[in-house]
Amino acid sequence: MSSQSLQVSNSYQAESGRRILSAGILLSGKEKFSPYYGGALARWTYEVYSRLADELHATTFGFPTAAADLYPLRHQTSSSSRICNLVARVPRVRRYEDHLWLWSLMSRVRGLDVVHIHNRPQWIRLLRKFGYRGALVLHLQNDHLGHWDAASLDRLAPQLDAVVVCSSYLRDTFAPRSIAIAAKTKVIFNGVNTHLFFPREELRQPKTILFTGRFSAEKGVLELVKAFDIVRRTHPDARLKIVGTPLFGLASETPYVRQVRELARSLFGDNSAQIEFVGYVHHDRDLPAYFQQAAIFSSPSIFQEPFGLVNAEAMACATPVVGSNRGGIPEVLGDTGIVIDPENISQYADVLSRLLSQPELCSKLGRLTRERCLQMFDWSVIATQWIGLLQALVRNKPVST
Q: Structure pTM?
């Protein structure tokens, strides 16, 4: 397909004659645009932009993804991805990988009303340098600006139109250092597909505790296993299910995974009835059932988690959440979940044991979390906020082509 045929115009018109915005979404790194192999950024992109088809023409730009694995949303890539992979392996030239990738996309993004950049603040300057004059939105799901000093933030501010963050916690890691950046920063939460994630009480297993997420040290899986060892002394019929792998869609045995498995074997032997390592599951097809079955979901992140999407997904399924007191997790839970210090193992275990002993409390918390999720985290709510932001940004900002 030629670059000319891939050129996206900013002059789309609805049948009513109303102008429809055009937007390009740049996935960060080499994330695949796939429900199975992609991560939270790909999911956010699909869930929000698929709901805005009548308001906006969206194209996601990312590294190659097999057609069979793609989300059903317009996606484009570039043959330069192969060269970028080679450049990334050469120490002296790897810093030019971003330049090459963005330059290869310029013919297709230059005329768009909005370019939405996931997690790459350094791309703002490059896109302006290469001639993009439309609205630039930097969307942060991690602390990429947290180490920037005030002068750097002040220089960044005039080059972009908005910084969107997924939590107030994340905003407060950088915005207080720059009045100019703070004025352009807005919190828009992550969301949940409540048509996929919903309660099914007939599936509920009263003594099952669930963890799902990336199987890595910062997610606190080891701390959960230690806490569960204490829980089973009071609840010998309790079960723990651990869903996830270190990498999206790939089963891999890292030193940390081996450490957790060895601890589990030393504590529980080979009794898979008490602790089960499920591995990676398909997010849309298989994951909802695990939330629907669990009596408790726990997210014991030991790092400053910017949001913690799995917490909101559990809430959508009316599953009570025991989350850590780190980052944006307390903000997500509000007063409908229970917050703990995941490194205080005895306190952590006590909260889990108390909930298992009080099914009425679990049911009450479940109802409250579901209500909060529908009000704040349903993707339709997020999509409405997003299109409102984009329309406001481009209303008086003509695009130079």
A: 0.88
